[in-house]
Every structure is written in C-alpha cells, then in structure tokens.
Fold this sequence. Notes:
By secondary structure, the chain is an alpha/beta fold. 38% of the residues lie in helices and 21% in strands.
Amino acid sequence: MTAPGDGPRGAVIERENPSRTSELVGTVGVSGPERVDALVRRADAAQRSWAATGIARRLAALAAGADAIAGRLEPLAELLARESGKVLADCRGEVGFAGTYLRWVVEHAPAAYADREIDDAAGRLLRLPRPYGVVAAITPWNAPIILTLLKVAPALAAGNAVVVKPSPLAPLAVSEVLRLLAGALPDGTLAVVHGDAAAGAALVGHPLVRKVAFTGGGVAARQVAATAATQTTPVVLELGGNDAAIFLPDADLGTEPMRRLVLASFATSGQVCMAAKRLYVHRGRREEFVAAYRAAAAEVLRVGDALTPGVSMGPVISAGAVARIEQIVAAAVARGATALPLGTVDGGTDLAGGYFVAPTLVLDAPDDAEVITGEQFGPTVPLLLYDDEEELLARVNADELGLGGSVWSADEERAFALARRVEAGFVFVNTHNRTGLSLRAPFGGVKRSGYGREYAEEGLAEYAQTCVVHAPGPFRPGGAGLPANAYPG
Ligand code: NAD
C-alpha cells in the first residue's frame, strides 16, 4: 500500500506499465507546498554539518550508497523497465552505469573540491571550493536514475544537500535508488518530492534553494529559469537536441557502423536527448545507405514488451507520446514523404495493449517538416540528402538546438575537421549516442540545448563556487605624488 500524498486531498500519481497499460506498476504521493517547504528546510539545516563532515567521510557515504545500489541492481532494473517501457538490458545498463558514475565521483572529487593555496611574491591566496547549500534537482523520465545521480553525486560530494523532484512518468525506481543512497547519509541531506510542474516550481522557487540543476525540455526549462530568477538562483540546464548524424561520402556503411547507427536512433524508442535524430547522407549513396540501414535494423531492432528477452525496443512513455509521434510522421507523409517500416516484432507481445509506435525511416520529407525541424523524441528518423559539404553544414547548423551530433568517415582527420564546425556541445566520430559516452567527456549543449555541463571535471565544478581568502603582497604606493590606491601592476 502506498501512503497518501501530502499534497492537495492526498493526491497520488499512478504509474502504469507502458508495455501493458492495464498493469499498475506503483504509486507515489504528490508533495504539496508544505511538504516541499519542510524538506527544503530540513535539507538546509542538515547541509552545514554535512559540509563540515569533511570530504573523506562524505565520499565514504557515497561509496556505501553505490554498494547498496549495486546489491539491488536486478530488482531496480526490472522496476525501471516496468514503469518506463525501456528494455530490461538498457535498464540494467543504466543502474550499473549509475554505480560506475558514483565511483568515478568518489575517485575524482578530492582533487576537484580541494582547497588550493598559493603563497608567492603576490601574497597568500586560498581558493576554497564552497558548496552552494541546498541544490534542487529536477529530472525527466527517459533515464531517470543516471540523470538524477549526475546531479546528486557531485552535489553531495561537494558538501551540498539535495532535494530531487523526479518526473511523474517514472518516479518509482529512482525513488528507490535515492532511498538506498539516503540510507548511507545523515538525515535530511537527501530528500525526494513528487509531482508535476507545481511541485517542481515550489522547489525551484524556494528561497532556501541555492542552485537548480534541471534536465528536460525547453518549455519547462524556460519556466524553471524564470522561477529561479525570482530568487537569483543559478541554474544548470541540460535540454533536448536534434542531433545530426553526418555520413561523408567515404563513410563505411558496413554492418558494425550501421548497427551502431540504428541503435543510436532507436534505443529507448528514440526517446534520448542525444539520439541520432537527422541522418545526412550524400545523394550518391542513397540507395546503398537505405539498404544497409534496413538490413541492420532487421537484425538489431526487435519491438516488444520491455521485459521480454531479445526485445531491443519497447513502447514509448505515454498515450500522448504515441499520438504526437504518429502525427509527426503522418504530416511528413502528407507532404510527399515515405515512412519505411523497420525491424521485427516480437510475436508474444500484444502491441495494442501498450504504447507502441512502429519504428520508421522517413525518406524525402521537406526540410521544414516537423520530423526534421523538431526533436521527434520517438522511434522515427528522417534521411536527408546533400550534395556538398558547405551546404550540408549550413543545414545542420540552422537548427536552434545544439546538443550533440556525429560525423562518419573512413578518414578520421577529415571527420574531426568537420566535427569542429558542427554547432553542438559534443560531436562523436564514427559512432553516436550511448556507445560514445565517456566519463571523461563533459556533456551539455550549446544554443537552445542549454548551459552548464555534466560528467567530467566540469560536471563536478557545477556544484561548488570558488571563494577566496587573500592576503595580498607588499603594499605598493602610487607613483609621483599620487595617492596610494594603485591597481595591481
Ligand atoms: P519535461 O521538460 O517535460 O520535464 C522535466 C522535469 O521538469 C519533470 O520532472 C517535470 O515534472 C518538471 N517540470 C516541468 N515543468 C516544470 C516547471 N514549470 N517548474 C519545475 N519543474 C517542472 O521533460 P521530459 O518530457 O520529462 O523529458 C524529455 C526532455 O528532456 C527532452 O527534451 C529531452 O531531450 C530532454 N533530455 C535532455 C537530456 C540532457 O542531458 N541534455 C537528457 C535527457 C532528456
């Protein structure tokens, strides 16, 4: 039994299984404004002693949390698959990767958050990376565990307390992960509130919240930034992308790169911020590319229930997502495009019983069709043809979003040269999406894909602000009769 919410009239969020919508996976109580206020105040009260604990003890607690999560990998992965429709193998990968990231933080935080003292002729300068206080983490549903820990782990390591608001579309597994982690921490240091935009806004706008870390879409991001601005609270925004995968004329269209590419577009049913969302191929290789792509999809793309072994693509997240994606494809087809079906279907799955959308490759859509100009965030990807590299770059960079991208070529130097000119926070070479992720590569967008970074040292730096204690060098009087108020020379 779930406790009733503490929000208005004890409201609860019921989460169904997107693979079988008749199955209720679980419920969480909605947090009302009083609950949000109480948890932020508790976090604020806990934060100072957490910061004073010292980094070694904080990291020991995070390591214990990582062990507790690792010990529950299988049930956590299954719960995530049930509530999100993401296939079980991917969910195992996400939970395992969350542990890997926690341990990476434990290893790298001591250097990132160390005091640094410089004592030289210019004086004595102490640089102190100081925690902000209470951090609010607002996260989406598509990779809820890793996207939450990318904020929570460095924030806690730096000495902040954290209050998380997960997406109401996948609140269950991440709450369990946070419960396990909180078990290793002092009371109040890590808390969770539940609900939709109202709960998120109550958290972001709270006067005791000192930093906001948000991952999600552009519409919510602008509201979050506006709410945070009422308290002058700094924000990190990790937003959507419309990543181009650029195939140069010499690119290898063999089995391995094509498999990587298909999964780069269709893993998690295309609901990934850095999915390959526009495929640019030289006009001369169109037929060859389509044949190779369809063959790879037939091998690696099997649609069905997220818990069925061998299935590589599950449903999408909601009935609304089904309607939105089908409308985008239909609109392109109405303007002369062709939607080629891809992959195979698991015979044991009742597709009508879940939020399934057939994966498609869209050919010949006009450049201003929504399937090209927007983040489709579903299992459909358009193929676009180009003749010349400069025209190609102009079309790729015309997009307002600038999260990721990829360049595929047999000549790595040529790929790197073009990659430098793609307006994106990160560009992969001869791969795309998860198979290109690295803990040492900072992750985040340019243009309307947001600001701030996760992963790597930059991701740690987001959670501490450098303050200084400074005893400058010898007093230097001003020259030739001027008062002694000179600037440093
Ligand atoms: P969303 O923007 O609808 O919601 C994200 C979170 O914000 C949820 O918890 C939601 O309840 C909350 N929220 C919504 N309005 C709010 C408000 N006014 N104040 C406070 N909180 C509010 O996004 P989504 O549908 O959950 O996720 C999909 C989007 O996330 C896509 O655009 C995707 O590309 C993006 N995304 C980006 C990254 C990245 O790292 N760049 C990673 C994953 C997903």
